[in-house]
Design a protein that fits this description.
With about 120 residues, the chain is mostly helical. Helix 1 runs antiparallel to helix 4 and helix 2 packs antiparallel against helix 3. It is elongated. The N and C termini lie close together (about 10 Å).
Amino acid sequence: MNIFLIWGTRVVVLALISYSLSFLRLNKNRRVEIKALAFQSLGLLLDISSTSLMILGSRNTPFTLHGIFGYSALLIMIVDTTMVWHFYLRHREKSISQNLHRFARVAYLWWIIAFLLGLLLVIIA
């Protein structure tokens, strides 16, 4: 395994931790707090970094099953992070709407599926 893939794997695990902490705070409190925003934003930066590192390190075409899941999960997390920031800037720490809460859950679940798919592909390869 080359150095880009090794670092990409490490960084994506950090993104998992950061996204999970944000998701747990949002689910627990049902409001957007600055800590949840910080973890969400950090997770997104780590996700973008890990995706870039894995693209640089991969010898495969970027359009594999995992690649498509991964890119779509990254895109959904970009949208989710943007929506959460937008809500926070407009409403501060008020309770989040049911639609935003539902979208955040779906986005997180989709990202977890992409993460697990990548893990499964590494295990069987």
